[in-house]
Amino acid sequence: MALLFRSLQTLCFLLLISLVAAEHTSNWAVLVSTSRFWFNYRHLANVLSLYRTVKRLGIPDSQIILMLPDDMACNPRNAFPGTVYSNADRAVDLYGDNIEVDYRGYEVTVENFIRLLTDRLDADVPRSKRLGSDAGSNVLVYMTGHGGDQFLKFQDSEEIGAWDLADAFGQMWEKKRYHELLFMIDTCQANTMYTHFYSPNIVATGSSELDQSSYSHHADNDVGVAVIDRWTYYVLEFLETQVTSANSKLNLGDLFDSYDESKIHSQPGVRWDLFPGGEPEGRLRTVVDFFGNVQNVEVENSNSTEPGSLKEDLAEIARLVEKWRQRDEEYSAILSSHNNTEASSLHLTAKKTVGSTKMTDDNSWGKRLVGLSVVGACTAVWVAGSILGRKV
Amino acid sequence: MLAKIRDLRNNPHLLFVRLPNLLSLTCIVVGVVWLLLLPLNEYSRQTYISENALLPGQVHAYFSGSEQNVFRGYKKELEGLLNEGRDQGVPPAEAGQTPAVSSKIQSILQAAGLKVATQKYEYTSAGITHEGENVYAIIHAPRGDATEAIVLVAAWKTANNELNLNGVTLALTLARYFKRWSLWSKDIIFVITPDSKSGTQAWIDAYHDMHPASVQPLPLKSGALQGALVIEYPFDHRFQSLHVVYDGVNGQLPNLDLFNTAVAIANNQMGIGSNLQEMWEHDDSYQARLQTILRGMAKQGLGYATGAHSSFMPYHIDAITLQPKGEGWEDEMALGRTIESICRSLNNLLEHLHQSFFFYLLMQSNRFVSIGTYLPSAMLLAGNFTIMAIALWMRTGYYTGTSSTAPAIAGDKKEKPSSKKVTSGKPVADVKLKESGVAERQLALPLTLVVGLHLLGLIPLWLFNTLPHQYLPTSAYAFVIVDIVLPLVLAALLSHGLGLSAPIIPQQYHLIKSFSLLLLGLSLSTLATLNFSLSFMVGLLCAPLSFIERLQSPSKPVRSTISGIGFLCLNLLSPPSALLGVCWYTGVSVETVLTQAAFGWDVWGVWTQVVVWCVWWPAWLIGCVLLGASMF
Asked: Chain A to chain B, count of Cβ pairs less than 8 Å apart?
């Protein structure tokens, strides 16, 4: 009976924990394309497609950091000036009329990206260029570009390594800049990019394994370039056709199950081990936990017991107050019982000894005698020496 | 075993005479075999597009339909003017150069909304004046920054001197068509030039302000040129395949990516076959591949311009000519679409073509060998001369060998037993020591002679590039005679001591040969990196020179006969006789070749003549002198 009760209690506790952990108060998205040049049109189209999706599912522009290293819409080679399409049917102009690019052109650098994640930015950097996430934010990080084994090229001039990215996320966790993080990457050998992550609460997914290329999906023969990558295309297909509203109950498991290697032409990967509860728990997160905007406003999480929570802090302060109170009581007790008791007068005796001390008389006279005799002996030696010297 | 090796080391005849000969021969044989191996699959590679930005064939080409009516209209207008000119007695080849035609082209281009300008030019070479007027027009990239441009050229006279009416009309139609696109990132320049040989040269020189006084400067310019396409369509029927001509002046080649782009677009997007190097029936067999390589090498080696595109190459502008060939069902619209698609690819470029190879030998439109694979071939040929020169230099310092003081019995037979005795008997070793002691080199005469003969090469170089064309064949024949007489006179002079008190000793003959071969080896190995084919051809023709020296051994009559025959054989390999031989074999008149060569020197800046007269001819002359000296 007791055993049953005990296990029930544990189960309830676990359920409570998971419910508590699933709650987040804001959503942020960092969408990064890392390549410029006309022939990389598709990378910008990838990012802009995702930008459109997260906006549709409710994340406001103020909480989306969009990094576009090139301006395809205004490229002179663009047969449709001012537009970017991610499909040859050209049904949706991704550039549209409400798009907010936060980092553009040569601002898209590894340094800026890492500074953005870790919030090591100058005070004068505007809010639009800051990732204002906190310990209650679910953050979606999507990257696309040209990459290789454990690196991703930025703009043909530099690259970010898997360790750099892992450390940036590690620092974000330490600085309480995310609650849970979904990392998505579409590049060649993408899965190598998340191998070094070590901070908790991250789900990572990539488009291709080590030594595999990620391919483009199709080209638009009027634009003259490939317009979208395969993996992104099929992720978007899922998001656009299945996750139709912010109330969608589809979870990450459904999203990852939708990967079809025969369509993607490479093996996508998912990493669950950093997530508390691993895959079974991670799969239960809904897609809109990361792609949508959740308005769970909570003043404070009263049940939380993890280090750093208010409850913990209050308890700690209470303990400190208790400790000081005890000391105070002890001290006053000693003061009050000074005249009556002698057993507990350790402090008082110490007080008594305090004062100036004098050297004893005999001791000083002895020293004076020794000094005198030494001086006398020296004088005697000097006199004897001078007399003897004169004789010679 | 060790004793044997020591024997070999102590055998100066082997070290300084036999071994270098063997090494040189091996170099030549390996060099030639190397070239013959290149067409094999193991040594050649499939072509591929290196530059990501090009994206060949990824765009729809819309040039068709109503544009065909425009094409027909323009053609009719131009045809009318051409017929008028013909009625007035203008020769058909010059039909495109009348002022009426020129102003018509200008008005068409202006009507299409392009900025138009003209440029007059005049060149005189071998007493012939080449003049004309280029008409060109610029489409400014509507959203571009005007720092780069693509050139489309159509010459009224094709490289084969045919009237290129369809080509010019197509260029005009394309100008009108391209003007309406807003997607150009580079300006597009249309150049209509009267003639493939001099027109583009005048235009491109003036574009870079490098033109001579007889050529007008350009009033209108654009940005840095990124690529050029030359359109030829000199017949009225439909065509079957596209012949891509890519050789530039002095054997320079356009970036392989440009060729690959043209082939990829023609084959894959348009479904038009492609040829190269006039190989109409290419079955991809070893023979066909080798033949293609050899044809390419011949053009590269001679270094002349193979079309209007060749003039662009010295300015590092990649250019090709597209020639429709054969009877098929592709019309001018298909050619237009191909050009449109190539232009769209070039338009995608972000920087100058640089990713792919500039040094290559093509053996099929989709197979090539790169410089790393083929270069050793010419380098080995050039190396054989250097090896011989170094060996001779060492030989003159340490080893007198069959010197004139030694008994004049056959050196080979004498040397072997004597060298064997060196290890066994002491008295012989002493004799040997005396014989192979350190000798002082007499450098003055050999150096003077070698340098003097190389400078002498400037005379034929000057003559053949300045004489009027009618005297050129005569002077070529005269030079054959000079090549027979001059070495004999020189040999006789040398044998009789040049009137100097000191007689010419054999060491000096060796030194003459050494210096001559050293220069030859040096020049050819340097040349191999710039113009592989020329270096290879000259190297092959000079190969016998490594093994020619003044004979001393047999008695005088035998010696004279042997050297006389050798002298005659060598004369067949002299530069003028080689030229006459090639002309006789190909059936081209000597005058045409020499006039063309002079034109190349004057207008295109061809350097082949310098190599012939200042590298090949002096080396050959010295070989002949050495052989001639054995007669006296």
From this structure: 46
